[in-house]
Every structure is written in structure tokens, then in C-alpha cells.
Amino acid sequence: SLINVNGDLTIKHFALDRINLNNVVTQFAVVDNTLNINKIRADVYKGVLSGRAKIEKIGENEYNINAKQMINEVNLQDMFSDLFDVQAISGQANLVADVTIPRMHSYSDLYHNLNGTISLGASHGVFQGVDFNLFVNPDGMSLTNKKSTAFEQLQSDFNFTNGISKNGQVHFSSKYVIATGNGMIDFSNAKINYNLSIKSALPHNDEKINSVLIPVTVSGHLFSPKINIKNIHLYTTDIVAPAAKTVATQKKKRIKE
Question: Which residues contact 237 (CB under 8 A, 6 or more apart)?
């Protein structure tokens, strides 16, 4: 570069395609076509972003990007709606990302070239479009077509290579269920293939069934997937106990998908 620069910068509003930041305060240096953001603080989706980044120009409108960022108390519904046109999840979350994006030319390269780790911890949110509580709390069945699952805590961890996380982990809990799962998220091709186990203890009942395990697959388009429920397993002992056993086969058949 012809000019090397060091400085502090304050920006009221900054927009890069779909990414919108407000009240940006940063310390930066430009040396040899490389922008080093040594410190940044900004308001984003009702949360606060902090971290550092390195942006290296490698060609005409082409960049290598390295970033370590944290966003505290971000509004998930605002973020997913703005970035992905998705309103299927809400809640307040903390997000930690340590990522690289090589040869970024446009916003779409963020999906195809994403490498690194992303962790998301959320609380007091809602999944829209599916009611995982229905099988263990039929009294809460809605008379409308609007299905949802409120969760109290959610934790997910992903390791991306070229836009694909092959074995991401997710865990969430609600008033009635605990769910764990893993699988593939493919940002590059907008696909998902996840296996979830929905578990819950049941209240006292005449059939002496103590707990239920619901295997669920989530597959198809990343932002409008199909959710399929496999055979539901009922247990007469705690499902985490080694001696757990299912009820009679004829009863299982009545609750198949």
C-alpha cells in the first residue's frame, strides 16, 4: 500500500451487505494492504460485539479474513431474520467465533469459505414450527396450527471446514424435555442432517411408564428442514439406567411415526 495508517475510529452506523453494526469504536492499523483491527466494540442485534480481526487484500476486491469475536446478549430472532431471512428461533444468546474466511469476494463467500469454530449459548428462547413437548405434555396441545417449543437453555458447538460442520453438537432443555444431538450443517449448500434424542421423565401413570425417548431427524434445506419422528420408546425405568427396558412391542407399534 502507498500509505500506512494507525488510528482510532468511531462510526455511528456501519453496514456490509446484511451485517449492520452501530456505535462502532475500534483501534486499527493498515500496513502493506492489511487491515489489523486490534480492538473493536459495537452494538449489534441488541447485543454487544467485541474482539479483533485481520483483513488482508490479496486481489481485486478479494480478501483473506481472520476474526476472533464475541457477541454478548444478542437477540437471535433479529440476527437470524436479518442475516438469513429466518424467524424460526428466538432468545438471547452469547456467541463466540474464531474463524477464517479465505478469498472472500462477496457476502455469499461467507457461507462457502467459512472455517473455524462457532459456539452459541442461548437462554429463554423458542423454536418455531415444532412442538417437542407435545408427546410428554399433551395437556399443552395447541388448538392452532402454530407449533413451537420454548427452551430454557441451549448450547451448540460447531467446527466448520469450507462452510461445512460435519459433527456439530447441540443440547437444549425445556420445562418438559432434555434434547441432545449431533450432525451436519452445510452452509455451502444450505443443507442440514441432524439426529436428536428427546428425553423426558413422565408423571405417575397407571402403566408405570417412567420416561420417554423420542428419536428425531432434522434434514433437508438448512432454513426450512423436514422434522421426522421415529419410533417412540417408553421405559419402565429411568432411561439413563443400564437396566432400562422398553414396554411391550405391541404398545410400541401404536406410537410409531
Answer: 210, 211, 243, 244, 245
> How many CB atoms neighbour CB 105 within 10 A?
12
Segment (H or E) for 110: helix 109-112
Query: What is the per-residue pLDDT across 213-246, written as a single tens digit (0 to 9) for each?
Result: 889 899 999 878 888 887 888 777 554 443 334 3
Contact (Cβ atoms closer than 8 angstroms) between residue 95 and residue 118: yes
CA distance linking residue 15 with residue 1, whole number of Å: 24
Helix and strand totals (H; E) in the chain: 3, 14
Q: What is the pTM of this model?
A: 0.81
Greatest Cα-to-Cα distance within the chain, rounded to the nearest angstrom: 81
* E strand or H helix that includes residue 251: helix 249-253
Could you give the CA distance from residue 79 to residue 46 in angstroms, rounded to a whole number? 9
Residues in the chain: 257
